[in-house]
Write a structure and sequence with these properties.
- The longest helix has 12 residues, at 78-89.
- This protein is globular.
- The protein is an alpha+beta fold and 90 residues long.
- The protein is 13% helix and 23% strand.
- A hairpin with an 8-residue loop joins strand 5 and strand 6 (74-77).
- The strands form 2 sheets. Strands 3-4-5-6 form a 4-stranded antiparallel beta sheet.
- Residues 1-20 are annotated as: Disordered.
- It holds the Pfam family DUF397.
- It comes from Streptomyces acidiscabies.
- Residues 10-27, 35-89 form the DUF397 domain.
């Protein structure tokens, strides 16, 4: 498995995190800020509900909802995404 260098990524804590320095989840959208997104060639042209994927991040496949791209993305390992595609095509 490849590792991704996240040393230059800007992280932020949730606004729901408390101030006592406890265990909080930190998030970043730096990896996706320059991602080039594409829809499936099977998507229709009427602006319907589609998934968008990006090939911009080595070893990861970000996936988002085209009708609400600012709602966030799911990241899948590239080999897992490839296995998923094989599964749905068979």
């Amino acid at each position: 498995m490849r590792s991704i260098d996240l040393s230059s990524v800007s992280w932020r804590k949730s606004s729901y995190s408390n101030t006592d320095g406890g265990n909080c989840l930190e998030v970043s959208d730096d990896l996706l800020s320059t991602a080039a997104w594409r829809k499936s060639s099977y998507s229709n042209t009427d602006g319907g509900q589609c998934l968008e994927v990006s090939d911009s991040i080595p070893s990861l496949v970000p996936v988002r909802d085209s009708k609400d791209p600012s709602a966030g993305s799911l990241l899948f390992a590239a080999d897992s995404w490839a296995a998923f595609l094989v599964g749905i095509k068979s």
